[in-house]
Design a protein that fits this description.
Bound molecules: pyridoxal-5'-phosphate
Mean pLDDT: 97
CATH topology of the largest domain: Aspartate Aminotransferase, domain 2
Low-confidence stretches: none
Order of helices and strands: HEHHHEHEHEEHEEEHHEEHEEEHH
Number of helices: 12
Oligomer: single chain
Distance between the termini: 40 Å
Shape: globular
Number of domains: 2
Largest sheet: 7 strands, mixed
Radius of gyration: 22 Å
Structural class: alpha/beta
CATH superfamily of the largest domain: Type I PLP-dependent aspartate aminotransferase-like (Major domain)
CATH architecture of the largest domain: 3-Layer(aba) Sandwich
CATH class of the largest domain: Alpha Beta
Helix content: 25-40%
Length: about 400
């Protein structure tokens, strides 16, 4: 079989091939950034229009009950639960990942009153460490935010540490941490764990309860395809749901419409809601999550691994001479659904690739990140993407002043 025929046969035999048509993706475009902003499901626009025209336009305020807007965070949370190995009633869709980190960290701290350290790794996604630092400042120094080198983080677990915050799939390298093993080591030292699933949910099989996870957060706009700024999610294991929320807003009250003078937390996961749910955002998030719920996560993982292997092999064969250094793990099982390279001209190359209809992204200081989204990427797209990377490098098409200008958002 020729190489092209072999690639075509992978696509023909792909059990997930039916999903691509459910997304709005222009012909010719190779979208390798679903790990930053997932593509738009075709149904999303219609669902939003319905919500605006019928539920809001006609139903007005009666839709809080009539269209069940008021319980959308819990209902969508229950759907997300099925993708991340949680039980019904353990997940809500609400707020941003950053805000949910704050809620989870504070809840964990309240469950470990004698301990004062929030531990993480220096190379974690910046907002994770920033939120820890915010809590340290707010506590007047009683709580310490400690971010150490990634290799040493598990050695720092001791009886001063209240909570460990780690991202399961690293946002730059794609390195996957062993959730069950890390959680076990933390629990051995009495430490609770908050897992950030921003690059795992919808990308790799996750089993929070099998790992005895305590808390987890993650984004709605990456592999869940919920749209720009989609609500995030928060998982609180049932055994921790008695923790008293710090963001004690009225939507987490036991009886919000009793308008009582004092805060009284709702039971269950509902107490971790804060303010009025963003209905339009939740409607779009539901469209993305519904699609993913129809996919078998083991098939998603198997295809993601095939795409990753193909990408790396083709990069070795076709772009070997251009100075890319693979920074993702070479072993497939230790890699999430992305492949990252370091290159001194990474920024310019990513810009030049956009002009050739290949969208990846750049992460400072020198990393090119290519997200491989199994629901809508074909094997042939991966092969073609590498050909376009080769073209951009062989012709030095990236070496132009307009590609050097740094944009505010990368
Ligand atoms: C994308 C990402 C976030 C983003 O948080 P927001 O509050 O949605 O901006 C947080 N953590 C990790 C690990 C991420 O990859």
């Amino acid at each position: 079989m020729t190489l092209d025929a072999e690639i075509a046969s992978h696509d023909e035999r792909d059990p997930l091939q039916g999903f691509r048509g459910a997304f709005q993706l222009r012909d010719g475009l190779i979208y390798l950034d679903g790990n930053s902003l997932g593509a738009a499901p075709k149904v999303t626009a219609a669902r939003l229009a319905e919500t605006v025209c019928e539920q809001w336009g006609e139903g007005l305020i009666t839709s809080w009950l009539g269209a069940q807007w008021s319980i959308a965070p819990q209902r969508i949370g229950d759907k997300i639960a099925t993708i991340i190995g949680a039980d019904p009633g353990e997940v809500i869709a609400a707020d941003s990942t950053s805000v949910n980190l704050f809620k989870a960290l504070c809840a964990a701290l309240s469950l470990r009153p004698g301990r004062s350290v929030i531990l993480s790794e220096q190379t974690n996604f910046p907002t994770d460490v920033y939120m820890m630092q915010g809590i340290e400042g707010f506590s007047g120094g009683r709580i310490k935010a400690l971010a150490v080198a990634p290799e040493t983080v598990l050695d720092r677990l001791d009886e001063d540490v209240a909570v460990l915050l780690l991202t399961q799939v690293h946002y730059k390298s794609g390195l996957v941490r062993d959730m069950a093993e890390v959680t076990r080591q933390a629990h051995d030292k009495g430490v609770l764990v908050v897992w950030d699933l921003s690059h795992s949910a919808g990308a790799i099989p996750v089993d929070l309860n099998a790992a005895h996870a305590d808390f987890a957060v993650g984004c709605g706009y990456k592999y869940l395809n919920g749209g720009p700024g989609a609500p995030a999610f928060l998982f609180v294991a049932e055994r921790h749901q008695d923790a008293r929320p710090v963001l004690s807003g009225w939507f987490g009250h036991a009886s919000p419409f009793a308008f009582e003078d004092d805060y009284r937390p709702a039971s269950g996961i509902t107490r971790f809601l804060c303010g009025t749910p963003p209905v339009l955002g939740l409607v779009a998030l539901k469209a993305g999550v519904d699609l993913l719920c129809r996919a078998d996560m083991d098939e998603v993982r198997a295809k993601s691994l095939r795409l990753g292997e193909l990408f790396i092999e083709r990069m070795e064969q076709r772009c070997g001479e251009f100075g890319f250094r693979l920074i993702s793990p070479r072993e497939p099982e230790r890699r999430g659904s992305q492949v990252a390279y370091a290159h001194p001209h990474g920024y310019e190359i990513v810009q030049a690739l956009k002009a050739c209809d290949v969208i990846g992204d750049f992460r400072a200081p020198d990393i090119l990140r290519f997200g491989l989204t199994p629901l809508y990427l074909r094997h042939a797209d991966v092969v073609e993407a590498v050909e376009r990377i080769r073209e951009v490098c062989a012709t030095r098409a990236w070496d132009k002043p307009q590609y050097r200008e740094r944009a505010a958002v990368t």
